[in-house]
Amino acid sequence: MDKQAIGLAGMLAAMGTLHFVAPKPFDSIVPRQLPGSPRTWTYVSGVAELAVAAAVAYPPTRRAGALAAAALFVGVFPANVKMAVDWRHASPAKRAIAFGRLPLQLPLIAWARRVAR
After folding, report:
1. CA of 105: how far to CAs of 18, 35, 80, in Å?
2. Among candidate residues 26, 1, 6, the one with its CA nearest the CA of residue 16
3. Are 49 and 15 contacting, i.e. CB atoms less than 8 angstroms apart?
4. Within 10 Å of residue 32's Cβ, how many Cβ atoms?
5. HSE (side-chain half, CA atoms, 13 Å) at 80
6. Does pLDDT of 36 surpass 80?
7. Residues 6+ apart with CB under 8 A from 58
8. pTM of the predicted model, to two decimals?
9. DSSP string covering 64-115, please?
């Protein structure tokens, strides 16, 4: 497995696991417009990240998994926007984290696309 794929799969697996180990921070950034419980969305997104990680790790499904990872990074962008809006009056450190996550999605998408090739 190439290093790019290992790294992407590992990062997705770690984040997916965190959705179950420490769900509260994820619950807080679920957009209010989504129906149902934020915890349900936290778990659903955790399962999605773990499934995508497995697809990226397995060479026969790597391309599809990496494209799914790119789509996942686009799909979670509204949660990052919500975090930035919610934390706009927080401490400078929290604001830096929240606003820093927004442009971070672009290199994550590019990384997934590189793995897909």
Report:
1. 18, 24, 9
2. 26
3. yes
4. 6
5. 17
6. yes
7. 65
8. 0.90
9. HHHHHHHHHHHHTHHHHHHHHHHTTTS-HHHHHHHHHHHHHHHHHHHHHHHH
